[in-house]
Amino acid sequence: MDALYVFVTTSLPKAGAQVAGLPLTLNLLLTAYVILRRPNQTLLTMQRFRGLTIAYGTLFIFGTLSMLMALAQGVSAFTLSQMLIVVGSPLVGVAAARIPPERFSRIIICSMIIVNAYGLIQYFAGIESTSVAGLTYTLGQNISDKPIGLKADGTAEKIISTYQNGNSLGIFDALGISFLLTRSQSSRFWGITRYLALALGLVGLMLSGSRSIQIPFFLFLVVLLAQFIKQLSPRKRGITLSIGSVLLAVGAFFLYVQQTIVSHFFDRLFNQTLADPTGSGRTEQWSQSFEVISQMNGWQLLRQILFGQNPHTNVGGEGLPKFFFIFGFISTIAFYGGLLYIVWQCWQRRKSRTVAIGILCVFCAFCVDQSFNYPPNIMNVALFAAAALNRDGETSRRCLSISVSK
User: Which UniProt keywords apply (predicted)?
Assistant: First the structure.
């Protein structure tokens, strides 16, 4: 069941239907099952690292209190579900801890190929014409209402694949690439498909149109590749560089032949960014946030620091300021501090340093957009982090089994 959960979460996260105005997806149903099936295992996974236990424990306590206060004041069901996603999603890392590392890697390879191959189909054939209700997007929702930047000619600025959102697709690709770079395969078949998944992931990231993840990823790309090469043995280093050079040449030829992908990427990342230095108003939200805070009285400020805003307070914004207004100062420190702690823990392990960079890129994305509000973004971070930190997979699973028997 854990393997099924990882596959659904990473490849078909929006498969399901909208019920009473809220999405009821297979991913969310399996999330509840994975967390609640063996609660002691879930807690044990979180307790493996003291710093993470403190960060998540703080987020859980203050996040739950924020939800209860918001519920008492008439928060909408949709906003409450988003808050629940943020607080509950980190717990799904237990699924990755219960799966053999090689099986987890192969699931990610399959998901990367499926998601990004479908993204290419969307790019060439159109998003609306290739979408399948209930499978590639939630039945009952309108795919044209999603933030994909549809143009008059029917093309889109953001390819969404099965994630319904370009930002979410970009986050998955950044995590998938950083994870697969250091996960060699025992068979030739899976070794080849791993390289295919990496190549498609890079193209998918380019097509996602998500500047919030593209900018940090390509800024850290040199460091990412350097860490990948460092962890290889001298023999594997030469072989990998040779294969990488061939794949790079093939990829460059493909992009040269299909220059619309390159032009799409450069137009979105450079031309539109330079034309709007505010990042669609994101840089201005910091001053607006301080202005809103300066107008609060003593009780409002205390409420904001501890539990976030009154749900009827209309404060816009994206990223970290939005998280602060929803959950308050303490939960914000716990959430973002916990992400940085995971980055640091991954960096301490030589073979997980590329994953650390991938999660750091997602941290940057969470600072500037609201992707943390939507599944499966935090879930994917938790899954990849748990898989990366699970160095001794068999030992960890034996400990989990012992905890159940006790």
Answer: Ligase, Membrane, Transmembrane, Transmembrane helix
Angle between helices 77-88 and 50-72 (to 10 degrees): 170
Whether residue 173 contacts residue 112, with contact meaning beta carbons closer than 8 Å, is answered with yes
- Return the sign of the alpha-carbon dihedral for residues 178, 180, 181, 182: positive
- Close Cβ partners of 210 (under 8 Å, ≥ 6 residues apart): 158, 166, 167, 169, 170, 171, 365, 369
Q: What average pLDDT does range 1-18 have in this prediction? A: 95
Q: Among candidates 115, 113, 108, 135, which has minimal Cα distance to 6?
A: 108
Whether the per-residue pLDDT at 316 is higher than 70: the answer is: no
Assess contact for 174 and 358: CB atoms under 8 A: yes
In whole angstroms, what is the distance from residue 55 CA to residue 367 CA?
17
Helix (H) or strand (E) holding 18: strand 16-19
- Residue range 209-231, pLDDT digits in tens: 889 999 999 999 989 988 888 87
State the pLDDT at residue 359. 97
Select from 153, 148, 240 the least CA-distant residue to 191: 240
Confirm if 156 and 150 have CB atoms less than 8 A apart: yes
Indicate if the alpha-carbon torsion angle 175, 161, 376, 5 is positive or negative: negative
